[in-house]
Design a protein that fits this description.
Layout (H helix, E strand, L loop, with lengths): L5 E12 L2 E8 L13 E6 L3 E8 L6 E6 L7 H7 L6 E4 L14 E7 L3 H14 L2 E8 L8 H8 L4 E7 L8 H6 L6 E6 L1 H13 L7 E5 L12 E5 L5 E4 L5 H7 L17 E6 L2 E2 L7 H6 L2 E3 L4 E2 L3 E4 L2
Parallel strand pairs: 7-8, 7-10, 8-9, 10-11, 12-18
Antiparallel strand pairs: 1-2, 1-6, 2-5, 3-4, 3-6, 4-5, 12-13, 14-16, 14-18, 15-17
Amino acid sequence: MNPTPIDVLIRQIRLEAADIHSFELEAADGAPLPPFTPGAHVDLDLPGRLRRSYSLYGGAAGRWHIAVKREAAGRGASAWLHDVARVGQRLQAHAPVNDFALDESAPASVLVAGGIGITPILSMVERLAAIGRAWQLHYVARDARAMAFRERLQALAAAPGGELHLHFSADNGRPDLRAIAAAAPAGAQLYACGPAPMLDDFAAAVAAAGIEPARCHVERFGAAQAPAAEGGFAVELARDGRVFQVPKGSSVLDVLLDHGVDVAYSCMQGICGSCRVGVKAGVPEHRDECLSDDERAANTAMMVCCSGARSERLLLDL
C-alpha cells in the first residue's frame, strides 16, 4: 500500500528566474514537515491525477522548498503550478526520498548543474558550506535571467572552500566537462543534474578521466528513451488472475490504475524506481533508467510507468 500522504499548504510563491517559480510548503496542521537530506525529492499529487517529483532545497526548519520551471512541452504539472496554484492552496505530498545522496565524508565535491537542475545541487552546496567541506560548482543557464539562485550561490562561494563558475550558453559559455573531470581533486565526489545531453556529456567526461563510477552521481529529470506506448499486449496479475489489455497510447501503469490496482508511482518517466513491479513470466521491453544491465537481462522486474513488452503477455507479481 502507498504511504499516507501529507496535507500541505502553499505558504509562498516566488519568482526565482525567467520561467522558474519557487514554492514554500508547510504542513496543513501546523506540525513540522519531515526532514530531508541534500539531493532528496518529494512527490506532489496535483489535479488531473498528476504526481510529480520535485527536488528539495534548504529553507525554514519544518518546511519544504521546491523550484519548478515552466515546461512548454511538459505534461501539465508545471503549467498548473505556474498558472493555477495560489498561496494557501492545499495539496497532498509524500515523504522525502533520496536517490541522489550527498557523500559528506568526501574531501571535495565537484558539482555540475544545468538550468532547473540547480535545485538539488543548491541543497548540496548549502550543506557542504555548512560543514566546511571544499566544493566547486559549474552552473550553466541560457543567460543571467534564467539562472535561479545566483545571488544565493555567490554568497555561499564567498566563504572559504567554495568555488563558483557561472556559464551562459547563449554566449557559448558551456563548461568543458572533460577538463573539469580531469582536474577533479583526488578522492572528490562528482555530481551532475540537468538536461539529458549535458548528463550524457558528463558521463563521457568522467569515463574519459578514468574516474570510478562509484564517485560519480547523476540525477535525471527524464529518461533517455520515450515511454513505451505501442500497446498490443496483455498483463496478468499473478495474485488474482485478472488480465488486462494494454492498448496503443497507454502505459502498463495507466491500465493498472484504471482498473483500481494499487501501484506506487512517482516520476512517470522511469527514473525514480517507485513503480518497480516483479515479473514472473514474459519479456519486458525496458525503457527505464533504474535497472542494471544484469537486472534487465534477468527480466524479473520492470518499471510499469515506462516499459512495455516484447512478449504477448506479462505475468506481474501483483
